[in-house]
């Protein structure tokens, strides 16, 4: 595919069988430039964009190039439909249902909504599953995801461990979409060694509606759970307004970004791990830095809830924070600060006292996209000096869940700081390419 | 421009001199379809997308069309470079500086950063301004925007009123980017009748860096402040990673979405009001529903800070909220809830008691994009029953600033509810087109 290319550049590149993601070499005068072809973000249709080895992107006018060579096609791994079919016999994919829209079934006589994920009901709803994998379903509980709590995260993590111990190739968690990304993060930190994918799936429109995404999301999750080479927790949901494919997002890098769209879930500061084409029964692995399936599934699911997420805004009274710290004996706090990681400088002394008392204070940005950098401005440096820990490009919500997990395992503030700033399961991405920021329509 | 179109469709459309935004008519078999050409969002390069009168978008394969007709060019109002030049004499644009990166000047001897927006320094920095408008600068104060507070919003609003009373055509507020959108919302509610644009502008990279956006943002703000037909508060910042144009975003619909990119500011649930081409000295007005310049500038700037923004997450202890309500005598609260507007149902009774006690409780979504709808799920209905007010598609931060403003003007809860759900200055957008949601790259 040649995303974003038009006119002259499109013509030349497609003639050379070059696609986005391919390694190419171009010559401009005496200079030879080698790198990966990126999607075009230029209004000028003669410009091609290449990612160099040093991480920089360069835009070149195709008219000034004396030579363009395809060195290697993109090395995307593709799992095709021929490989996707079930062995006979025991369960290969376990579907654990926790509640939410995807598992609700409306009883037409009474109008009541009830969970509907027994093994038989799933097969009845989606007979195609039989052609993909042997499944087994378990109703763990049935709660709306807005009522999800850390104690339920532990129960889900334990059910995942059991499912792999039973010999399944992958596990699906049917979950309400409201707090799905929080649960995904909690599972990712709890299950850092996994024999296969843990796929969280939900639906934005219930299955009694014609535009429901239940079937597509569930079917592609079965494909993913059984066949993907991942040993990590992913969220698998609709990718775009049409029904072409779903996306497997890394569980610690995904966020619900729209209240109602089917493609509400998107990766933030990260690329999705895979595209799943449900109709073609095909998985395209987007990246090669995924965490591989491990020999053993290890469970370590403990959370300390004595934390607080401080969403900073002008006018927020510092007394409220002092109050929370002193009255609720919190052990840690995540700030969703402004810009590169700031609050009003009024807070500096409160944070200094807190960190002196052994309370962890970590900084993220309410911008969501981008990374905190507290060395640029005075306030940032003051906050650093007061002991606030910058948390790179972690989402505020993910940092909070990680903190709950870390606090349940460590008492020493220095060790807590060290683990919070160490990338455990992909929650910190140190390399941002330009195209991680989505594009708004300005027309 | 033919944004997103490639190949066949691009070829045909450009031959017919059709651009995005034009009114076209196509014929498919017996069917005649009339509508506005939208940017292409399709992977299939044969598809063209048309917005019908009823608001729906339809994608059509260009190969199946027997006729394509241009009915009318896009009716975008364009203010051209010929119209953009200064009259001689008194100040036409007032530049009020409040602090932040755009006004900082590094003293190379000492390394200290100091505000640099005297009239002379601005002209020295950007002599081109002289060709556009007569300006006058005022240093109101010099604070980092993370230290901004409601009491400063009042001072800025008063300075804006003075500037229009002095006869200026438009006012520019130089402001740090961290909390710029909060200030923009505060000014929008304080100055609901304006003789001209109030343009908030900042810079993401300071002017001593080669990639600084200071000059472009400031120059285009002068063009906008003097010539735009708006009587509203806008944020004018870099639009894309290249330097082509800036965007004027409605002050109550904009958010800083990236910690460091120059195009960090983007409209959420809304389209930008205008594009400003600084080099060509041209304004393209994007929409016709902007608020027009009024005869008189009216100032009503009061804020009640007894509010709280509750960012909901699983594990948040309801006791913390009860504590804040009882100890800080808050009069109102905005919830950044999950999905369509939810919290754990544990909170229902707390909210019921709060609203009975006359406290306003309003619901927004932490998804940011989309609208709350509390009629879909049980928890939403319970929250509604408990007196929680759904706030449509308002951003949590904007709802909070609006609430501070409303509480300073009203005591009666029913009246407060009514004003909070009434669109005052564009903060509620009842019509969402599909392309308001940005596009993520999935490659």
From TrEMBL, chains A, B:
Domain (L-asparaginase N-terminal) ranges: 93-287
This protein's record includes keyword Ligase: yes
Keyword annotations from UniProtKB, A to Z: ATP-binding, Ligase, Nucleotide-binding, Protein biosynthesis
GO BP term (any one): regulation of translational fidelity
Cleavable signal peptide: none
Active site: 101, 177-178, 256
Catalysed reactions, as listed in the record: L-glutamyl-tRNA(Gln) + L-glutamine + ATP + H2O = L-glutaminyl-tRNA(Gln) + L-glutamate + ADP + phosphate + H(+)
Domain GatD N-terminal: 18-71
Enzyme Commission number: 6.3.5.-
Molecular function, one GO term: glutaminyl-tRNA synthase (glutamine-hydrolyzing) activity
One Pfam family linked to the record: GatD_N
Record domain Asparaginase/glutaminase C-terminal: where: 306-420
PROSITE patterns, alphabetized: ASN_GLN_ASE_2 (PS00917), ASN_GLN_ASE_3 (PS51732)
Assembly with partners or alone: Heterodimer of GatD and GatE.
UniProt cross-references to NCBIfam families, sorted A to Z: asnASE_I, gatD_arch, PRK04183.1
Cited function: Allows the formation of correctly charged Gln-tRNA(Gln) through the transamidation of misacylated Glu-tRNA(Gln) in organisms which lack glutaminyl-tRNA synthetase. The reaction takes place in the presence of glutamine and ATP through an activated gamma-phospho-Glu-tRNA(Gln). The GatDE system is specific for glutamate and does not act on aspartate.
Family designation: Belongs to the asparaginase 1 family. GatD subfamily.
Name the UniProt record assigns to this protein: Glutamyl-tRNA(Gln) amidotransferase subunit D
């Amino acid at each position: 595919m040649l995303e974003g290319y038009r006119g002259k550049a499109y013509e030349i590149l497609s003639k050379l069988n070059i696609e986005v993601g391919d390694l190419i070499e171009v010559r401009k005068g005496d200079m030879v430039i080698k790198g990966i072809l990126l999607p075009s973000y230029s209004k000028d249709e003669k410009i091609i964009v290449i990612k160099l080895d040093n991480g920089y992107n360069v835009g070149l006018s195709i008219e000034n190039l004396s030579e363009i060579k395809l060195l290697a096609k993109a090395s995307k791994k593709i799992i095709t439909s021929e490989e996707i079919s079930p062995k006979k016999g025991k369960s290969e994919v376990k579907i654990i249902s926790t509640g939410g829209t995807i598992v609700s079934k409306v009883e037409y006589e009474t109008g009541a909504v009830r969970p509907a994920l027994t093994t038989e009901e799933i097969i009845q709803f989606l007979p195609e599953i039989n052609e993909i994998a042997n499944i087994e379903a378990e109703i763990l509980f049935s709660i709306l995801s807005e009522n999800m709590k850390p104690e339920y995260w532990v129960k889900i993590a334990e059910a995942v461990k059991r499912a792999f111990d039973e010999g399944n190739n992958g596990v699906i968690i049917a979950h309400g979409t409201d707090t799905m990304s929080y649960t995904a993060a909690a599972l990712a930190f709890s299950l850092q060694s996994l024999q296969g994918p843990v796929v969280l799936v939900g639906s934005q429109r219930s299955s009694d509606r014609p535009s429901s995404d239940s079937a597509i999301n569930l079917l592609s999750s079965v494909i993913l759970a059984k066949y993907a080479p991942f040993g990590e927790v992913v969220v698998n949901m609709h990718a775009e307004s049409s029904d072409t494919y779903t996306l497997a997002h890394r569980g610690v890098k995904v966020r619900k970004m729209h209240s109602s769209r089917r493609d509400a879930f998107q990766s933030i500061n990260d690329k999705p791990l895979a595209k799943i084409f449900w109709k073609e029964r095909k998985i395209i692995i987007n990246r090669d830095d995924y965490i591989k399936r491990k020999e053993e599934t290890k469970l370590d699911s403990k959370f300390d809830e004595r934390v607080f997420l401080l969403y900073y805004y002008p006018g927020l009274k510092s007394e409220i924070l002092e109050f929370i710290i002193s009255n609720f004996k919190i052990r840690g706090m995540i700030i969703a600060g402004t810009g590169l990681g700031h609050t009003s400088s009024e807070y500096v002394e409160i944070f200094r006292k807190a960190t002196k008392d052994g309370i962890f204070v970590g900084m993220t940005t309410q911008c969501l996209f981008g990374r905190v950098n507290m060395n640029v401005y005075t306030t940032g440096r003051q906050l650093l000096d007061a002991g606030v820990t910058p948390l790179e490009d972690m989402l505020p919500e993910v940092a909070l869940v990680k903190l709950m997990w870390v606090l349940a395992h460590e008492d020493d503030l220095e060790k807590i700081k060290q683990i919070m700033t160490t990338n455990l399961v992909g929650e910190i991405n140190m390399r941002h390419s330009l195209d991680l920021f989505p594009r708004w329509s300005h027309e």
